[in-house]
Amino acid sequence: MGLNKPEQDLKRDLQGVASDLKWSAVELMRIAERASLAGNEGDAQALLKMCTVFQADEDRLTAYAEEVKAGRIVRGNGE
Predict the structure, then answer these.
(1) CA 47, CA 25: separation in Å to the nearest integer?
(2) How many Å apart are CA 44 and CA 38, to the nearest integer?
(3) Which residues lie below 8 Å from residue 13, measured CB to CB, with a gap of 6+?
């Protein structure tokens, strides 16, 4: 059984947001490294905490996308 259009859209959107979070975390890590090298360890640690949150959110959205693919999360045409 394949996914209907709304489910395909949901899966695509979840994967897209997960990808955006991954990219954002990578960029924030780079900024954190520069902040640390500049002696701003407080900001560097705050940025690293944000990265951890983003990575957890990315994992959760990726898992939701897999549930959509497996048919455990269903989206109807009217939603």
Answers:
(1) 9
(2) 10
(3) none
Identify which of 26, 6, 5 has the alpha carbon closest to the alpha carbon of residue 75: 6
Mean pLDDT of the chain: 93
Residues 39-76 pLDDT 10s: 999 999 999 999 999 999 999 999 999 999 999 998 87
- 19 residue type, one letter: S
Instruction: Identify whether the C-beta of residue 3 lies closer than 8 Å to the C-beta of residue 13.
Output: no
Residue 43's SS3 state is helix
- 59 Cβ neighbours under 8 A, 6+ residues apart: 18
